[in-house]
Amino acid sequence: MSPVSRGFHRRRQDPAANAGRVPPGQYVTRDFPVLSAGPTPHTSLDRWSFSVGRAGQRKTWSWAEFRALPSQDVTVDIHCVTKWTKLDTAWQGVSVDTLLDLAGYDGPFAVAHCDGGYTTNLPVADLRDGKAWVAYAYDGQPLDPEHGGPARLLVPHLYFWKSAKWVRSLELRDTNDPGFWENYGYHIYGDPWREQRYAGD
Amino acid sequence: MDALDGNAIGGLLREVFGTDMTSAGSVCGTCGAASQVAELAVYLDAPGTVVRCRSCDSVLMVFVKIRERTCVDLLGLAALDT
Amino acid sequence: MAGTALRGRLTWQLAKVTAVAAETASVRTITLDVPDWPGHQAGQHIDIRLTDEDGYVAERSYSIASAPGEPVAITVERLDDGEVSPYLTDELRAGDDLELRGPIGGYFTWEPADGGPLLLLAGGSGVVPLRSILRHRERAGSTVPVRLLYSSRTLDDVIYRRELDQPAPGVEVIHTLTRRQPPGWTGYARHVDAALLAEVAWPADALPLAYACGPTSFVEAVSQALVQSGYPPLRVKTERFGGTGGA
After folding, report:
1. Residues C132-188: pLDDT tens digits?
2. Does C39 fall in a domain?
3. How near does any CA of chain B get to the CA of A80, in Å?
4. What is the pTM of this model?
5. CB of C74 closer than 8 Å to CB of C104
6. How far is B13 from chain C, CA to nearest CA, in Å?
7. So what's the ipTM on this one?
8. How far apart are CA A195 and CA A23, in angstroms?
9. I need a surface site. Which of A111, C144, C232, C239 has the fewest CB within 10 A?
10. Pairing of strands A133-138, A141-142
11. A48-194: which CATH number, 3.90.420.10, 3.30.450.20, 3.40.50.12650, 3.40.50.2300?
């Protein structure tokens, strides 16, 4: 380990206040850091669509159709692999259960495709049963493009790189094919409570 | 979030290539744009560092540091001088 | 060229802080004694690394503020919600160790042999590497004409103000204050735009060399305007600073 820099500490935590809510190795932040692998896309709502399915067989919603679907207000804690955790984040979105049921397509795994080319992969079981949403509002406001607006995937029980920004489709697959960061060595699953940051963890 | 440029990863590039790369010439494998590495668009912060072409936004280089090992992907480049 | 060290292993080493001096209310210049310093070029930077007791590591890059031949110094602006900058500006003191590596960068550098006339464009703390260039020019006895266009929010935010108020022969400093101006201010009072540049920049047919440094939005705006006014892109060098997120 490098020599300790006298008097330097990362942002201080209050362990007692957040007992049980902070996964190992994480620290609580009050900001909402913006991390991106590329420029912020700006897709106009009249050209936006969201699809679920496989090549050749998909159910697609326009923005108006998507916003007409039943939505939920959820407050969740989110955990980024870069070690920050943000508690009690408030979102509004359509449950992925709703989207999968309406689409009528199924499969063991899914890849989220996004404007700008980002992808991430998840087991469909981690998108079902009230564990995931396609969120279009944060903290009572339309989701900012910097944070993934018009809509992003929200899967709070996994590291936040799985909550893909600017999501446009969920492609169902039979194999668990690694997405963008998974390809470079990040964990294929990403459970913050088992500290699954990197492949092999 | 505004992109930085190749100057911001001068140290990382020295680690990986053993020499200064900020003045090195690069050619985008997608659109053919030629640029010095210092002028490419750089998106910093973990999970990794992504370097993109300023003309077409294609990914040119990706650097990911995991457990003291750096993974380097240069597949987006058509050419890189040293 | 002695000590440019652009090749070979770039290793972390421990430097000693010899001084921390206030430039403005939120900006400090930190002077360092670096035992194995190979020398540097004007415009280069260093990476610094801070480690806490739990082994948490934070790394940042800072432009070298001093000229080749002077003790290594960096100038740091405190960003209020930053993790590293408040430590460097408020906590670090003479006698402390600071882990660093460098010098880094072969693109955003200037030597007298590179010629001019020089147009230096500074947005906020982007003035730091340009000040290294100015000091190097003076120490080298160069007579290359220079114009520094320096954008700051207010006069109190101008870094190296006394030094820039007494520029070396052949150097013109033009300020623009974008947020607030002192009473009686007759200088520029807006963000740099094409019209302002047209009044300040060397004409393109003088074959000038331009260096633009500061926040991304500043650098993009000025470099695009210069290229549109006829500066060849290869004669406009850019270095973008981040001011958020990793502060």
Report:
1. 999 999 999 999 999 999 999 999 999 999 999 999 999 999 999 999 999 999 999
2. yes
3. 9
4. 0.93
5. no
6. 10
7. 0.94
8. 7
9. C232
10. antiparallel
11. 3.90.420.10
